[in-house]
Design goal:
Strand content: 15-25%
Shape: globular
CATH class of the largest domain: Alpha Beta
Order of helices and strands: HHEEHEHEHEEEHEHHEHEHEH
CATH topology of the largest domain: Rossmann fold
Number of strands: 11
């Protein structure tokens, strides 16, 4: 349940449209619901502004479905990250009364009630150094869009071809927040950071040859950037970058 839904419920109780007993039933599972193998945090949207998200990696399709079902019932929408085809097929087979959208590149599933319509705010620009970084960027794009931010993506503009960045200066100037995903030596955030005044979030990707060390080299490069004010996420953490970008975007 988000803040708007809670306000609407309180108004309905105040006006007499909803009885106190019916309201109590809706609030019964705040702040969390115990499913024995998981404790679903229905209260997180109210506390943090970001709802609980299902991290599907190492969860069975059945566990993911059980959590998704109760989240959909309580809030009408949810996001699943690090999802596989088997998670998606289990959700579709359950015939949930909802729209289910699967982005296989991002490994993300967005589920929302058929009645729900929401606009997008601001402008988050997501860039990648290379095509191999796109899955992390797509995770960020799906997450930010789910949270309510407007997203623009620009892929494959790494430092090996600086003319590609120059071609995107107009888009950079219009962004409220920029997320830059880069593997290899992780240089792109420093370059972009020298061109923009808006907040920049760097995400190291686990892409590159041996001494990239699974993204560690890019992570250290971003942490040691000479451009001040760059926020750096964990390796491959497009989700975390999107959450921070969204919070900045809607301020």
């Amino acid at each position: 349940m988000d803040e708007n839904a809670l306000k609407a419920l309180l108004k309905d109780v105040s006006s007499g449209r909803v009885s106190t007993s019916d309201a109590l039933k809706k609030l019964k599972h705040l702040p969390f619901e115990n499913l024995s193998f998981a404790r679903v945090d229905h209260h997180r949207q109210l506390r943090q502004g970001i709802p609980e998200v299902i991290f599907a990696e190492n969860k069975s399709p059945e566990e993911t479905l059980a959590i998704a079902s109760t989240m959909l019932k309580r809030s009408g929408r949810l996001l699943v990250t690090r999802a596989s085809d088997s998670h998606y097929k289990a959700l579709v087979a359950a015939a949930l009364d909802a729209v289910i959208e699967y982005n296989a590149t991002a490994g993300c599933i967005v589920i929302h009630s058929k009645k729900r319509k929401a606009g997008r705010k601001g402008n988050i620009l997501i860039m990648t150094a290379g095509t191999s970084d796109i899955p992390v960027a797509e995770e960020a794009a799906v997450t930010a869009g789910f949270l309510g931010s407007r997203v623009t993506t620009v892929f494959d503009v790494g430092v090996a071809g600086l003319h590609r960045i120059v071609d995107k200066l107009d888009q950079l100037s219009k962004a409220r927040v920029v997320i830059v995903v880069a593997g290899m030596e992780g240089a792109l955030p420093s370059l972009v950071g020298g061109l923009v005044s808006c907040p920049l979030i760097a995400v190291p990707a686990s892409v590159g040859y041996g001494t990239s060390l699974g993204g560690l080299t890019a992570l250290l490069a971003m942490l040691n950037s000479c451009v001040p004010g760059i926020a750096v996420m964990n390796i491959d953490n497009g989700f975390g970058a999107a959450c921070l970008a969204h919070k900045i975007n809607i301020m």
